[in-house]
Amino acid sequence: MTDQPDLPDDLLPTTRRALLHRTAVAQAEGRTPSLVAALVRDGRLVWSGARSMIDDHAPTVDVQYRIGSLTKTFVAVLVLRLRDEGLLDLADPLERHLPGTPADGATVAELLAHSAGLASETPGPWWERTEGTLRPALDDLLEPGDALKHPAGRRHHYSNPGYALLGALVERLRGAPWGEVLRREMLEPLGMDRTTLLPEHPHAGGFAVHPWADVMLAEPLTDTGLMGPAGQLWSTAADLARWAAFLAGGDDKVLSAASLAEMRRPAVGPDTADWTSSYGLGLQLRRHDGRVLYGHTGSMPGFTAGLWISEADGLAALALSNATTGANAAALAADLIALTAQHEPRMPEPWRPLPTVDEELLALTGLWYWGTSAHALRLKADRTLELSLVSGGSRSSRFRAEADGTWTGLDNYYAGETLRVVRAADGSVSHLDLASFVLTREPYGPAEAVPGGVDPQGWQAV
């Protein structure tokens, strides 16, 4: 097993040892010919480790592995770029831009979230182990007359052909093959020159390991053609570390942090209250060890991959293996985050005051009442406002200032809603209007600001 020697030495020795041990266990118990893993902290690759079946030899972070459905995260970003440029709306039916497919009525958002109700796989033969030349047209990706398995928009049902259609959508709107668009618009700006549609030396070979004997069988390295957007890409640990840093923080050359945050919100409600996994717009979400992770898993014959990001911990981890089954790369990546967070919990940012004092904003802080419910309005150092129930509850929200003097909710119940400061005739603040809710400085007062008025007898004792 190797530990990357030239990375920043800012992990504790005990942490590095724990990460190396977990990686060795994954390779040994998973019976995979080779495995490479890496950790990203605050946008920087800070650790990598690898293990191989060959003595004194292990893959470096520059060796390519097939990443399977991690490809879908790249395709989703391409689609969000089209949305942000105004070339499509996520509510658009596919037929508006790509007519004549078996999924004409599916919306772009439903395809991204696997909620269009489409079949999970193509008609046979199994697309992952056969050449794409067997499916030369989009009509070949879904069974005519039997493409829909569930009502659209009602449930999450994973669909590989759905992402093939999204890749075709990118090609239609960009006028170029999706792989070329990917390279030009995303891979080159992010410095990911070792991420490719077909393997480039040095790359790992893919193997199946016999379930009952320690022997191996080489897996075919196929070009899946039109199904490529579902799982064709090859990449390296170093490139995927750059991808993880991008997914965590955004890059305006590729996609904004706000659009990436939109991608990692659950798009379809989970089936149970104690959910452990969900799906956004091209990103999987998973609860693991008390934290919420986002990223994606991947597998193709001969390979497994996993990449997870913990926003709360400022950590991301990934793992790549070259065996069809056995080494659970996704579980390994999640455990690397948990181990690092356990050994080296994230240091909070130091508290700092506002650089300048805005007297008008300062005057808005303090207690406000919605009817008789007391709310506290706080001004934060990043110049956002935070409104929360004094007694606690689920309607705490942050608000961002807009150029017109209003405020927009950023999260929870009031996400996207508008907060306005309403002034009296003399210019003084009368009340706050929040999505038609009126907040006043006293419970039900002043009376003229309260919808429906106030009983003229006022507050009374029994």
UniProtKB/TrEMBL annotation:
<feature type="domain" description="Beta-lactamase-related">
    <location>
        <begin position="27"/>
        <end position="341"/>
    </location>
</feature>
<dbReference type="GO" id="GO:0016787">
    <property type="term" value="F:hydrolase activity"/>
</dbReference>
<keyword id="KW-0378">Hydrolase</keyword>
<dbReference type="Pfam" id="PF24491">
    <property type="entry name" value="DUF7586"/>
</dbReference>
<protein>
    <submittedName>
        <fullName>Serine hydrolase domain-containing protein</fullName>
        <ecNumber>3.1.1.103</ecNumber>
    </submittedName>
</protein>
<dbReference type="InterPro" id="IPR012338">
    <property type="entry name" value="Beta-lactam/transpept-like"/>
</dbReference>
<feature type="domain" description="DUF7586">
    <location>
        <begin position="357"/>
        <end position="441"/>
    </location>
</feature>
<dbReference type="InterPro" id="IPR056008">
    <property type="entry name" value="DUF7586"/>
</dbReference>
<dbReference type="InterPro" id="IPR050491">
    <property type="entry name" value="AmpC-like"/>
</dbReference>
<dbReference type="Pfam" id="PF00144">
    <property type="entry name" value="Beta-lactamase"/>
</dbReference>
<dbReference type="InterPro" id="IPR001466">
    <property type="entry name" value="Beta-lactam-related"/>
</dbReference>
